[in-house]
Amino acid sequence: MGVIMLAIKASNVSKVFKVSKLIPSSSTFGQVHWLISLRYILGFREKRKIIALNNINLEIDEEIFGIVGPNASGKTTLLKIFSGLLLPDSGKVEVYGHDIVEEEKIVKRLVNFVGSARWITFDYHLTVRENLEFFSLIYGLEKSYVKSRINEVLGMLGLLDRQDDYVWRLSAGMRQKMSIARGLILETPILLLDEPTTGLDPLSARDLRDYIRIAVKEKKLYRTVVISSHNMRDIEDLCDKVAIIHKGRIIKCGTLDEIIRSVRGLSVIEVEGYNIPYNVCELIGRIYDVVSVNVEFKDESIGRGNIRVLTDSPERIVYKVVKALIDINCRILSLKMDKPTLNDAYMKIIGVNLYGGKTRS
Known about the structure:
By secondary structure, the chain is an alpha/beta fold. The chain has helices at residues 33-41, 75-83, 104-110, 128-139, 143-157, 172-185, 202-217, 232-238, 256-261, 280-285, 314-327, 342-350; strands at residues 8-22, 45-60, 64-68, 90-95, 98-99, 111-114, 190-194, 224-228, 241-246, 249-255, 267-274, 290-299, 304-311, 331-338.
């Protein structure tokens, strides 16, 4: 029997960034721009280290794999290392058995990295199609293949009717679609997507998820897709497995069922309302028997949104939750009991509520 090879294997991977910071001056002249610049050039700086990844161990098979975590948790750094755009300070990464350091050229032919907001690299004096044709030539793709592939990708992303527009005429969301289109033109065994639905409207995000699912499950255009996202809908709809990363460490990894199982036996009190303050998680989190709280704002101008309270005693605390919201002048529109979702499990696992509240372990 042949050996089954993993798509990506990371062993004890760490990455540290060194950041230079100006030392504050007590002099009045220290506020002058040219003097600050001079101080920086002359080396009056203090250096600090930011630990982006801390001893990461991860195995990814031929599947759709999700990576979730808060901002600055290390998601993008990890994807860039998988693609060979960054090298780890220590540890080892293999892509289908090829070391990303020793066999860099082979790895880069196997992996395609599509980063978030990479539209800044487009030529604004070219049209949408001209930009994509230009990058196709850089990729070394056959002209006969490029035309049909660009049509397919633009059609899927709803940009076919804007193909002759100049980039500067497009909205930020459309430029994000262009960035995704550029990445999808190139078909490689492994596709890495960093926050792919950021800036997309719900319909476009749904169409992109449908395309990825069909491309992997039916057309077999990609063997492996790794997605980092803040949008739990992306993860729930697409991913076979999920890794939760926090402060540079993988703190949980498994199937969706395994992740959600960590909150089995708990219930959710969901309250829809308006005039919700930003510190509502901290206020509700003080109630005993509240495991975690998070809020999703739908209209921040009037503080309208949904508050989800994870608890093991819903009947006992529902009155306390309602009273606490009334006391802070929150207008309650509806209240219901719900089952925990992936997002509820995620909030409990990382131990931090949105807007500053802490979870009860």
